[in-house]
Amino acid sequence: MISVEQARQTVLAQAAPLPPRELPLADTLGLVLAQNIASDVDSPPHDKSLVDGFALRFADLDQGCGELKIIEEVMAGDVPCRSLQTGQSTRIMTGAPIPPGADTVVMVERATVVEDPPYGRVSIEDRALVAGRNIMRRAASLSRGQQVLTAGRRIRAAEIGLLAEVGRAQVQVVPRPRVAILSTGNELVPADHTPAAGQIRNSNGPMLAAQVTEAGGESLLLGIARDEWDSLRQAIAEGLNANVLILSGGVSAGVLDLVPRALNELGVHQLFHKVNLKPGKPTWFGSREDLEQKTLVFGLPGNPVSSFVCFELFVRPAIKRLAGHSAAPAPLTQSQLLTDFRQRGDRPVYHPAELDLSVSPTTVAPVVWQGSADLLGLTRANALAYFPAGDRTYHAGETIDVWQI
Ligand code: AMP
Ligand code: MG
Fold first, then answer.
1. Which residues line ligand 1 (CB under 6 A)?
2. What SS3 class is residue 226?
3. pLDDT above 70 (res 94)
4. pLDDT tops 80 at residue 330
């Protein structure tokens, strides 16, 4: 049986970034940029005023004081028509272009306007004023032709703003991986059904879809397949149109665990089956490739917490890699155990736990948890506490590895 790390490496070796696509800027948040971006403008596009005030020639003032004739008013969006001569000033708003001849702007709070049509005269007292104050020079932040972003950058809100500033309404990005999710099991009914005798609700489908969204994928719920060849084959064939197909259930050793064989018959090449961990041992992974499309296929164990944990360990890194993110390191931290923990068995355990990052050193407490079917226990956790294989009691105060979820 392979280790968690070997399984992760096997998965990552199959996951290359998807081919870039051009998307509208508004749809690119969180995606990875697939092109270098050069600006098509200077920013600012002109020498501009940083305040509402008066543009003037610094030499016209005596230690920041003087009275000048106002010859024009320039709002943001306007272009000044008149050059300043000695003794003149232009009333100017924040962002508006500085008129030719002016070299300084005094803020309106340091000026008093006196009646004298058409624009008046302005009396200025600003003893701390220095030449050039309150002007941002053309291209001070970036110049036309300058490369402002490089391929590989994750697009956040700030990058969206910058891309808009430099005129990129369409952007080449690595698209979101499309991830199909298929729940298998004769016992399953959808969440809006009342289970009859022997039935349970499909919790994995909605949960995995949420995990896919969190990981930056686009989820496609295929519903529930029965543990029958036809039902499975038909749903799997549909799922193979996606970049990733996640199945839950049907990969253990039960009589109706048909998933590995159904996948095999549909041309999915098995890369591993069973991983040395708890919960999640029956995990299956393979891939199918033809000329147009490669699909990574995960068969996760049906128990909800097993599905959840195996998604975090194996599927999330695959989605990240397909979406063009650089190989993210495992979200491992070290933390101090708050309570004793008895570990038994020959498999490493990922136990739902409460991690407290607000204290130093950070602490972690395994939550009360009834095992891989106990979703309520999982909701009390924000991390998985890792305990290596072997029988041993871990004592409060010991440092252990913790996987953030
Ligand atoms: P399996 O892996 O198919 O043997 O399923 C293991 C356990 O997980 C069984 O108790 C199933 O009823 C349960 N299970 C399987 N699929 C789901 C699902 N989609 N939602 C909730 N429980 C499930
Ligand atoms: Mg089953």
1. 183, 185, 187-188, 200, 202-205, 248-250, 252, 254, 301-304
2. coil
3. yes
4. no
